[in-house]
Specification:
The protein is an alpha/beta fold. The chain is built from 31 helices and 19 strands. The protein has an eight-stranded mixed beta sheet, with helices on both faces. A seven-stranded mixed beta sheet has the order 1-2-3-4-5-7-9, with helices on both faces. The mean pLDDT is 95.
Length: 716
Amino acid sequence: MLFDGQTMKVDLQEGGIAELRFERGNEAVNKLDALAFGELRRALDAIKATPSIQGVLITSTKDTFIVGADIFEFTRIFKQPDSEIVAFVAGNSAIITALDDLPVPTVAAINGLALGGGFEVVLAADYRVMASTAKIGFPEIHLGLFPGYGGTVRLPRLNGLGPSADWIIFGAQQGPERALREGAVDAVAAPEELRSAALAMLELAIAGEADWQGRRARMKQGLGVAKEEAVTFLANAKAQAAKALPHLPAANFAVDLLEKASDLDRDAALALEAETFAKAAKTQAADSLVSIFVNEQAVKKSIRRYAKDAPRVARAAVAGAGIMGGGIAYQSASRGVPIVMKDITAAALDLGMSEARKLLAKSVESGRLTQHKADAILESIMPSLTYEGFEKADVVIEAVIENIAVKQMVLREIEEITGPAAILASNTSSLRIGDLTQTLRRPENFLGMHFFNPVPKMLLVEVVRGPKTSPQAIAVVTGFAAAMGKTPIIVEDCPGFVVNRVLTPYLIAFLRLVHDGADFVEIDKVMEAFGWPMGPAYLIDVIGMDISHHVVEIVSAGFSRRMDVDFETALEILLRARRLGQKNGHGFYKYRNDSKGRPRKEIDSETETLLAAARPNDKTGFGEEEIVARMMLPLILEAARCVEDDIAASPGDVDMCLILGLGLPRYLGGALKYADYLGLKNVLDAADKRESLGPIYRPSERLRAMASAGEVFYPI
């Protein structure tokens, strides 16, 4: 053994070949952290110091090759001054460059995922052989970054400027076919033939039958592209970066870097890459998206902890069909858990089954499912007008109308039918679990399981702990939600839980803006430009005006002193005109179905006439900054109160609820991460200036104390 480390090993094979093998102890994947980089440097030094070595084969013993850098290290490093970030990145990049500069030919055998820094390692090899099942790529843009260990330098020398820019700014994983076609790899082999194919390529290079030295010399030179040509090659990428990723400065940084480095040699380009990477690392987006990654890992750890001892749910049931019930049934069945879907009308059952059929048809059309598999999934959804089959269910989800009396009645009926170990969960969006518990004989088996619409697309499930919910019930539902492909986050009981509790003051702020004379279309445009997937008026139409009104009514009543609304709202006026949003084609906007049956919004001139009654004064123009401030401040202040009230386990859990369940722009990192970015004192100053607009703009005393003490929600 030439080198024996904790993350990699080097041993000598026949024919003067050294195998540099990434092998990270008992961990599931290989990653590049400080330990790995330190060992890589020492391993390369050992190879260089061994004259008998004729070539190097780079492999991995894990199912993945290298998944990338250790993102947890970034949270500390990115707080450092620019110069220290440059030194950190340049230092690690230099270690990978030392692989590039070994005095013998090198071949990487890519057996699985080689992403981010892992892909940069294989780019430093002279040749790359990729398994037909492997994926490569640069996902850094999803962290508000771009490749910083030579990726922007080496990939263009293989792929060309335009394709490389596309790989970098969109961050997609690339399969073998495209990788081979565009020059990122040199060969593709079946997994069982990968090692022999890579060794054969290395032996050709050792024998001088492959010009690895000429290739390496070309990789060290500039691209041979004049600045004017580089601008032309990158014009489309620059336009895409500006259009598709307006809140990710790293995309623009990356394209500019590719342009500026096009006529630089390798080492000069690497230096420029490190300097530019440091600028990206200091952006709000990078700070926020790295924080989201850390929060996601914490949520996954929590899920594993709760669900590790939970029995697998073998059969489920849902009471209440329609779009929501059909979505829940589809999600359960598609993940291998048969489910009974019950309703009191055949029409509702037909709607639920139609929703499931539509979702399955889309999967078949896209190639994700075969028709045979889709048919089997549909057959595992059992529509019923009775409770037959509920007695066999491990978990029953109540998803009937949002009326406390109706829900209590249905839950009592279900409890009478199901076994003593069955878990009952309510999909209520706003009612307190404690209030629904009152008539149940087994309250320890009852909790909230709040899905979001549309169920297949929305990842979050709020698992709501009631006043008497047992740890076993939490564990079972957490495990079931995870098995359904969802992200369950455990929250405590209160009106609206986290998402709808925080959404309510946001919607009240919108309704107040309209009352004060703002144009709802302009508000939507501003908030969508800010990063929301849809503006508040459009969101209300999609949710449904009746449901939105009900949620605001229930949640605001639960926090009446803080969420009082002392004016007739646009929501009430439009509801009185029997406008329900997308569900009946008229809300703030009017809707027409396109050729694929999808509702498309249009401006409705009648809306303005109706809303005139919602404005005591004429329409008034508000600047973009004022609209954003008036919309976002109540959301931030209520999110902070969720932390104070221990509704979620951490600020990270609150922020993940809002990102996954509400669609809060990811580049903000969450409401509380955004508050840290703005500065808590600045948040308070902005709120105090608008206190006359209503109590939703009044910060809590705890938040004032945090600001005064210089505290943040996310300390280093």
